[in-house]
Amino acid sequence: MSYVDEIYERVVAQNPGEPEFHQAVKEVLDSLRLVIDANEDKYRKAGILERFTEPERIVSFRVPWVDDNGKVQVNKGYRVQFNSAIGPYKGGLRFHPSVNQGILKFLGFEQTFKDSLTTLPIGGAKGGSDFDPNGKSDREVMRFCQAFMTELYRHIGPDVDVPAGDLGVGGREIGYLFGQYRKLRGAYENGVLTGKARSFGGSLIRPEATGFGAVYYLESVMKHEHDTLEGKTVAVAGFGNVAWGVVQKLSELGAKPVTLSGPDGYIYDPDGITTKEKFDFMLEMRASGRNKVQDYADKFGCKFVAGDKPWGEKVDIIMPCATQNDVDLTQAKRIVANNIKYYIEVANMPTTNEALRFLMDQKNMVVAPSKAVNAGGVLVSALEMSQNSERISWTAKEVDDKLHQIMTEIHDGSAECAEKYGLGYNLVAGANMVGFQKVADAMMAQGIAW
Ligand code: 2IT
Predict the structure, then answer these.
(1) Scanning 126, 277, 403, 435, which has the fewest C-beta atoms within 10 Å of its C-beta?
(2) How far is residue 194's CA from residue 191's CA, in Å, rounded to a whole number?
(3) 91 lines ligand 1 (CB under 6 A)
């Protein structure tokens, strides 16, 4: 049996009940066949894939906090420190009822590749809790964040592990988490978290970075295809921070985002989500904690479709910015039926493996993988770390230029690598190969320390 297949079986056997983790590993291993086959003896002997698919450390802890009625609530807390071969662990914290160890392993594994792709010195991690911030008061969120950090602080640090936000963790939560870290640690180490507010070391452009970066990547795709964003319609899923950055940059570059989605359904706005009033309303919808995208349709008088996803709409470009497995085979078939050329993943693993394979098999479709497309967020987080360690602050233009430049490099590097291995314009395989190579080289050079 090939080394790659052997490792997949091993991962399934050793990580029971964690289908998302199996799925993420399979998608990566399928892309790595050529790279692994070319160096099979060397990698086998060093156990590189066994090590690659096993987190360096998982911290799992109890988070007790007091709700507004004085009752003690208990949640689960985790940090999956996946790989630190190329830099301190880096990756977001997710507060969502769906969070469990398997989901965080999948996200930490993906993060290792993504962080490697940024070209900056950061390792991969992910953490979070099954705490549901929706419907909680501000004080409850604060007390939860303090309780969570009371354990997490002993496992993180500016040169150890640098968490940030993800679903359910935005600027407000990062503020509460940092306040508690600073108190417990007794030192001003603001490089311990990224996505901070400006007043205590946050970077300009960090809130927009994931969305802007995704559109910069899309620009490179269009350039490769001798096409342009001007006048293109785009189906966007989600309505959180990432979708907010995406629609702004798309509008600025002359494209027209027409959909957003939430747990309740999706909206279709034929005029485009292209005005400041609409961008600001997205922030309001998110801050309201209602988690309903229907609010947008009510406010701007456009179509709302309950209980469906926007993938049946005829557009030029698809950008899923919500969460994992938003596009399964049935949804992928709707996309193909509409003859859509550009499928740009933005959320982490928004496509099931089956759907991804189906889309990649379409002759005229370009598929771009989330771990490359959404790398702009963590990329600017790494720039925030640089600014914090130098105790300086870069201008918005400095950060944005760097983001734009590196996103272009990520696209071009993946495209080149896939071409080199004879795979054509395969951005999925290219990203996995480039992301893997740097981490594997660092692991090989550092011996069997980890
Ligand atoms: O998925 C991601 O890359 C993030 N949630 C951002 C991580 C970070 O450290 O900025």
Answers:
(1) 277
(2) 7
(3) yes
Question: How many other C-beta atoms lie within 10 A of the C-beta of residue 101?
Answer: 17
Q: What are the beta bridge partners of residue 60?
A: 78
Instruction: Please give the distance, rounded to the nearest whole angstrom, from the Cα atom of residue 173 to the centre of ligand 1.
Output: 14
Q: Is 129 in the pocket of ligand 1 (CB under 6 A)?
A: no
Give the side-chain half-sphere CA count within 13 A for 118. Answer: 30
Which residue type occupies 348? Answer: N
pTM score over 0.90: yes
Residues 6+ apart with CB under 8 A from 282: 239, 243, 244, 247, 260, 273, 296
Query: 342-344 and 366-368: which strand pairing?
Result: parallel
Closest CA to 58 of 104, 3, 107, 118: 104
310 lines ligand 1 (CB under 6 A): no
Rounded distance between C-alpha atoms, residue 443 and residue 450, angstroms: 8
Q: What is the pLDDT of residues 320-379, one digit of tens each?
A: 999 999 999 999 999 999 999 999 999 999 999 999 999 999 999 999 999 999 999 999
- Amino acid in the structure at residue 255: A
